[in-house]
Amino acid sequence: MPAKIAVIYYSMYGHIKQLASKAVEGAKTAGATVDLYQFPETLADDILGKMHAPPKDAAVPFITPNDLKEYDGFIFAFPTRYGRAVAQVSAFFDATGSLWATGALTGKFASTIVSTASQNGGQETTHLTTIPYFAHMGIIYVPIGYGDQNLLNLNEIHGGSPYGASTHAGGDGSRQPSELEKGVAEYQGKYFAGIVGTFVAGKAAAQ
Hints:
Elements: E1 4-9, H1 15-29, E2 33-38, H2 45-50, E3 73-81, E4 84-85, H3 87-94, H4 97-102, E5 109-116, H5 123-128, H6 131-137, E6 140-141, E7 166-168, H7 179-206
Parallel strand pairs: 1-2, 1-3, 3-5, 5-6, 5-7
Antiparallel strand pairs: 3-4
Helix pairs in contact: 1-7
């Protein structure tokens, strides 16, 4: 039985969505069954309009807390806000209290993809400040290390760290994810799916 993985993103201007889509591609090459979701929006339409945010992709469903129970692992992809996850992600995590109370996510796996405006905008802190949620839920966090040697590339400015893929959007959002950054996201999807798939196969064989 292949691993079931949900890639769940929040992306106001499309930067994170690009990385999430590459993670989906990578996970599928590892043989996983993969579904793409969005975090629910918390901002009103008039506020989004003032922020010149494009419409959400109607083809990608919004995740619900109960959906999480159906998957072996999750790749969460979202921008940073002052060194931590944006409010939309925090609001969703806060809505999973019943899953915490029942231990419904214990033993599942998670990995994170992030973005910032600048090089020093808090990419690693955003990964780090999300790990406590995983700990409370009993979710096993999977970093990527330096398995993708592109993370060591010093010839260009790029996101990405041993915690996971990331991108720099620029202060005005004009910078798009580079090929290197998208490649790291694809690697992350493949690596994560391989880890989760190995666990799922081993668990099935032990039963």
